[in-house]
Amino acid sequence: MEACRRAVWRLGGSGYGVQCGQRSLSRGGGVGTLSPPTRLRLVERHGAFLDMVHTQGDDIDGTVTLKHFDSNRVAEITVSNPASRGSITGRMMLELAEIVDQLCPGSGGHHGSTPTAPATASNDIDSGGGGESVVPTPTRGLILRGTDQFFSSGANFPLCTTRLQTNVAGVLMGAFMTDALTRIRTAPFISVAVLNGPALGGGAELATAPDFRIVRGSGHPEPYAMFVHAKVGASPGWGGLSRLCSIVGRRDALRLLCTAARCDVDEMLRIGLADGVYDPEEATATEAGLLFLESFLDAKLYSGSVTAIKSAVSAACDDGLHSTNPGPVAEVAAFQSRWAGPDNQTALGKAVK
After folding, report:
1. Residue 164: enclosing H or E segment and its boundaries?
2. What is the pTM of this model?
3. In the chain, is it the N or the C terminus that has fewer CB atoms within a 10 Å radius of its CB?
4. In this predicted structure, which of 126-130, 137-141, 224-228 has the lowest mean pLDDT?
5. What are 281-336's pLDDT values in tens digits?
6. Distance (Å, rounded) from C-alpha 158 to C-alpha 140?
7. Rounded distance, CA 143 to CA 283, Å?
C-alpha cells in the first residue's frame, strides 16, 4: 500500500482536489441514483434469461469475482476475460447476478438494507483468496474494475450472435443488465469504477454504473471510453444512456452516443466522465480504488450519515432515472427497436467476416 500512498491524481474539469500528505485525490462529477424498490433477487426476477445464457462461455476463461478489503468495508467486483477484451459471457452474467444479489440484498437504494460482507473474505490486496474469519461488516465502498489492461468491451460477441440473436432475447438481456447495474448505482454505499483500460459499448455503459470513475493515466492500450452502439446498428440497452446524461449532461451525452466518438482520458476529465487519474507505476487498480474511497471511509465520519446522504442525494438528483420515468422507458424502446434489426444484423455479419 506504500506505493498507493504515493499515487498522484489529476483533477477532473468539474472536480475538487483533496491533499493528503504525499497524495492528491481528485473528484467531482457524477452522483448515484435511486430506483423504486426491487423485491426479487436478480436470479429470481431474471431467471428465464439467466437459464437461457448461463452455460455460454463455459469454454472461455472469463469470470466475474468478488473480494473484500479493509476489514470487509470495501468490496471489489472484477470483470475478467483476458482472451476477449473483458467481454461478458452468459456465464459471467450469472456470476454478476449472484454477486449483486449478495451485495445489494432486498430493495435498491434508500429502500434497502445495508449489505454486509460474508463471514470469510479476503482482506489482503495481494491475496488470491481465503482470508481470516471475521464478524460480518457493513459494506461501505465498492470498486468495479477490469483486468489485463482492459476494462470491458460489453457483451461477448459469440453470445450476441447465438443466444441473443433475436429481438426478444436482446430485450431480456437489456432488462437484466439494466436492473443489475441500477442496483449497483443505487446501493447504500459509495462506488467507484477503476478504468484500467478501454471501455467499449456495453463496457462503457458498465463504467457509468458506479458513483465515480477513475482512469489509468498511462500504459498500453491507452484507456478511453467509446459508446460504439451507433456503429453496430444498435442503441444503449444497459441503462447507460440515461446514466450518461446524468453524469455529463445532454450535449456531451448526445455527442458521445450519436458519433461513437473515442473519449480519451483528458476529455473524460474535462466533461466529468472521469473524476481522477491514477499512475499505474505507483498503484494497482485495486490500490487506486481503495485510495479514492479513503475519504468516504474516514473514521471521523458516521457511516450511517454517509449512507443516508448518499441515498438522499441520489433521490434528489436522479429521480429521472427511475425505470418508470419517460427517459429510461424511451431508452428501452430505442434499444428494442434496434437490437437484431437489419442494421444490427448487417454490422454483426461484417464483424464475423
Report:
1. none
2. 0.82
3. C
4. 126-130
5. 999 999 999 999 999 999 899 999 999 998 887 777 755 555 555 567 888 888 88
6. 36
7. 14
